[in-house]
Structure formats: structure tokens, C-alpha cells
Amino acid sequence: MYPITNSVEFSRLHRQGLLLPNAWDAASARSFEAAGFEAIGTTSAGIAWASGFPDGQRLSLADMEREISKIVKAVGIPVNADLEAGYGDTPEAVADSASRMQALGAAGINLEDASGHEAEPLYSLEAQQRRLEAARRHAPDLFLTARTDTYLLGFGAGAQERLDETLRRGRAYLGAGADLVFVPGLAEPQTLRVLSRAFEGRLAVMAGPGAPPAPELWSLGVRRVSTGPSAMLRVLGLTARMARELRQHGTSATLATDALSFEQAQHLFR
């Protein structure tokens, strides 16, 4: 529907600090674009839920590829694709997943080190380096974001061990070819300053309800702030509220709250 913008533009947008909302379908993507955002990301959780699956690579790679393709085609701004852990443990699997995203026109990808395996929640540093190197080698045009879940999963025995491991992994991931290190689950200012200095500003975090506003995070040296599944969760909450009102009272006041007109919705896709 719109021309695809490549990773060069997406990289440029990070220079002054980028606020990246996360879409879960073509309609949410167009809504973010219509609001004036210059780039969007996808939320793997939101796409999975909209497709009838829980988060955590329960949706097949082919199904995820199809949904991300719809989003890429619906907008004329760069799209960063959430690839979770790459849909496979091996570098070869990651290379295939990254190549697919590059082929369909994504500007960048997120690749996380959370393995999904109970015995080893995080891939070893060496294994994740090889996986990132494979993504960089087979999809050289993508903006590559290495996500580490040290804070999201509560790695280590305490704050210092968690910080040390995040620093170790972030530096190694940048050395393996990543353009940015994404540390979700962290919003503490002093720690963000330490990480930003260590990564030479190449730091991304996830904001949401209760987190500092994006300008404050940028002032701490953060390069990118994304919203994760927050918007989709809000939509699900509103849908649940509408459903309760209709079921319990037979009324539809909630349906009118912040609703677009039919014509406005149609206009999103003209």
C-alpha cells in the first residue's frame, strides 16, 4: 500500500531519541502512523494474542511472518519486527528468521536472549553471540537490536550481579554486530546512566504505565523507548469492559468511549 522505508532511515531516527509504539495488526499500525509517529515496532505478545495464542513463540514463524508482512505493507514508515528468540536455538534458525524479515521489508529486528527453556532461561553469552553474528551476516541491511532479559527475568542474586551481567552481555552483543542493546524491565535512572555510558548511548528500554516519560529517559542517555504490549493490553481491557457492560446491563455507553467513526476508520486505509 505504501513504499517501504529501509533501515538507513530507521537508524537515522535513533540519533535524537526515538519513541517507538508497538503495533499488533495493520489497524493499530496505521493508527500510530496517522498520529505522526515516524517508525513503529511490532509486539510479539500482541500479535500472538490477536491470533489466538499465548506469547512465547507459540505462534509459528510462518504465521508471525505473515502478520508482520501485513503491518509492513500497511504503513509507509520503518517497521521494527519483534522476532522474540529467533524461532530456533541455533544460529542457522536465527539466520533464516532474520533473512525472512529483511526480505519482507522490515527495517530492523529485535532478537532476545531469553531461551524459553526452564533449565537455562537465558542463552549462554557465547551462544547468543553466535546467534547475533548469524543474523548480522545473513541480514546485513537490518537494524539489529539485541535484547537481554537480565532484568525482566531477575537474573542473579542481587542488583550488582544483574548489572554486571547486563554490562557483560551488552558489550558482547554490540561486538557481535548489534546496533542497539534493549534492556526491558529497567527504569532506574542511575542504572540507565551506567548502561548508556558503557554502551556509548546504544541503549533501548521499554516504557509503560508508571515509567518515566520518554524525554526523561532520553536525558539519561537512552536512545530508544518502546511501549511493548501496553497499548494492546489497554485495548483488551477496554474490550473486557465493553463486554461486561453489554452482558450485565444491556447498555453500550462504553462502546462510544473514544470511538472512531466508521468513516474515520475507513480513511485509515485509503
From TrEMBL:
One Gene Ontology MF term: lyase activity
Keyword annotations from UniProtKB, A to Z: Lyase
InterPro entries xref list: ICL/PEPM, Pyrv/PenolPyrv_kinase-like_dom, Pyrv_kinase-like_dom_sf
Superkingdom of this protein's organism: Bacteria
UniProt xrefs under Pfam families: PEP_mutase
Keyword Lyase among UniProt keywords: yes
Keyword Transmembrane helix annotated: no
Gene3D superfamilies referenced in this protein's UniProt entry, alphabetically: 6.10.250.510, Phosphoenolpyruvate-binding domains
Protein name as catalogued: 2-methylisocitrate lyase
